[in-house]
Design goal:
- The protein has 329 residues and is mainly beta.
- The chain is built from two helices and 16 strands.
- The protein has one domain: Maltoporin, Chain A (Beta Barrel), CATH 2.40.170.20.
- Strand 8 and strand 9 form a beta hairpin.
- It is found in: Cell outer membrane.
């Protein structure tokens, strides 16, 4: 991810062998593997709902992204025929480490990231890591801009030689502007096919779909003398979204570009998901052979609220799409 500057979950998955994506609009992306939609996402091995905006999550927090194509019911309890994606968070090191990156790219894409890991005790048995990033970018899409802020902090403590406690928190704020909602018209009113420039943006300038994701987590791991291992992980993920979206319906006239019907939507949504994962594994002997056993328990509860205006059809005419500059009404 570092070598290829894959700074979002979307870019990382699109670079993964066997994974394809389908872009619905500027904020919504679906991922597929083996012909099936991927809806199994995990953080440090704990399953969670894949909320809107998660494809733009910053990869600065993650040491790696593990992708298993095919069903993973043997390890997760509930399999998915497409693939399972596991985002593994960075952990603190016992020695001081720090690095920062600054980058600038096409379409005013500016990004800064800092990553610091420091021991809190002389022997390194208690250690911490803090990661922060900020990105401000425009796009090949006209009038689109996205700002992204991310912060991650974690503390690991070795309670004994065999027991480690970890607590952490991460937050990401994603603020796009000029957000599209669906695509552009495929056909003219006479039935002929349209040929738009790839930079055409049918959204209004005020259109946005802001997302905030916050997660607090704690885990405890213990290694027994007989080779068995016990892991317990609890997390609470909170999400908030605020959307004011604009699009158009219909078939424009080939000559004048008129005839489209404006449509808008306003909504607010929030959710809270608590997840508990307990897993134990280890060797045992049976019938003269050595075996490995894995047992686990996963519990998850998600509560969500959403308030929406429903589809609104403004009375102000849209005018010619050929002269569209995002100013509406």
């Amino acid at each position: 991810m570092d070598d290829q500057q894959l700074t979002s979950v979307q870019s990382a998955l699109e670079a993964t062998t066997g994974i394809t994506s389908r872009t619905l609009d500027s904020e919504r992306v679906d991922f597929y593997s083996r012909g099936f939609s991927i809806d199994s996402f995990q953080f440090d091995g704990v399953p969670t709902s894949f909320v809107n905006g998660a494809s733009f999550l910053d990869t600065a927090f993650y040491d790696r992204i593990e992708v298993v194509r095919g069903a993973t019911g043997l390890l997760t309890g509930a399999g998915n025929p497409g693939a399972s994606v596991n985002l593994v968070r960075k952990r603190p090191s016992e020695v001081f480490q720090a690095h920062t990156t600054l980058s600038a790219g096409s379409w005013d894409n500016y990004r800064a990231m800092a990553d610091v890991s420091v021991p809190l005790t002389e022997d390194g048995r208690v250690r911490a890591r803090v990661v922060g990033s900020y990105q401000d970018r425009h796009s090949w899409l006209d009038r689109y801009q996205q700002k992204k802020q991310a912060l991650y902090a974690v503390i690991d403590a070795d309670l004994s030689d065999d027991t480690t406690l970890s607590v952490g928190y991460d937050a990401q704020i994603i603020q796009p502007k000029g957000t599209t909602w669906g695509g552009v018209p495929r056909w003219y009113s006479d039935g002929s096919e349209t040929h738009w420039s790839r930079s055409v943006n049918s959204a209004a300038n005020w259109s946005h779909w802001n997302n905030t994701l916050r997660t607090a987590f704690a885990s405890l791991e213990h290694n027994f003398d007989n080779g068995w291992n016990l892991k317990t992980h609890f997390s609470q993920q909170r999400t908030e979204s605020d959307a004011k979206l604009f699009s158009s319906l219909g078939y424009p006239d080939r000559n004048s570009g008129e005839g489209l019907i404006p449509i808008a939507l306003a909504s607010r949504a929030s959710s809270r998901q608590n997840s508990l994962d307990v897993q134990t594994s280890g060797p045992f002997s049976l019938l003269g052979r050595e075996h490995e056993m894995v047992m686990g328990l996963m519990l998850s509860k998600r509560i969500s609220d959403e308030y929406s205006s429903g589809f609104v059809y403004p009375s102000s005419p849209l005018g010619s799409i050929y002269q569209w500059n995002g100013d509406y009404p």
